[in-house]
Amino acid sequence: MKNKLTSYLSNIKFTFNVVISYFLRKSIVLSKYNIKLKANWIDKTFKFYVFANYGYLFANYIIKSNNVKTFIDIGSNQGLYSILAAKNKNIKKIYAIEPNINTYKYLKENILLNNSGEKIEAINKAISQDFKEVELIFNKTHSGKAMINPNTGKEFNTKNKNNEYLKIESVQKEFFNNLNNYSSIFFKIDVEGYEEKVIDIIFANLENSCISGFFIEFSVYRKETSSIIKKLLNKNFLIKNITNSYDGQFDLLFEKKS
């Protein structure tokens, strides 16, 4: 009973401080994940960061894991998991890849706010199968829904009139080839429907022995979901954890079979 009361009071105090930060227009907000964030109240993903709406399963894993030395955050957004990974003394190098220049600016600021610059290298590029320029579709009010246009050069089939478009350079093949110099590489992949293509690029350019695991966002509505899971199981990875489904989405944590 005492623990519940303590937790309840702590939540009230946190919410009160966030409300004060909002109304006083403070430029820096402390997230429930205990990281500092550049205020970005227009963005839904930022609010998820603040109130820890993504839960703590992967947050706790990446902070404490002994099986990760290199962390590749593909679709890093404003840097939540990269910054948490920087707290792990076992992780020596982090690449935070975010294609949207608007979101990337917040990523860079948040890295500095949390003194994580020594470990994290932020990259403002996309990932594509042919390593060429791609078109990014995004909405300023929900940066987490940005996605690669599968038909770059053609209008994307969407009813959302608030969507905007950006041409983005891609990470080159050499980046993936160079990762073979690292060990115990863990990939977090959140690319809104482009996951299978990213995984194909990874396995086409990296030795499987270098990879320790994956954390991937899935959707029950995407036909590629079962295909991705089968590919990883066939590559000797096991499902270790699964988050609860929300809005048809769920996350899976894969680790290399020992």
UniProtKB/TrEMBL annotation:
Note the Pfam families from the entry: Methyltransf_21 (PF05050)
Gene3D superfamilies recorded: Vaccinia Virus protein VP39 (3.40.50.150)
Please report the stretch or stretches of sequence annotated as the Methyltransferase FkbM domain: 73-199
Q: What is this protein called?
A: Methyltransferase FkbM domain-containing protein
Species this chain originates from? Prochlorococcus marinus str. MIT 9201
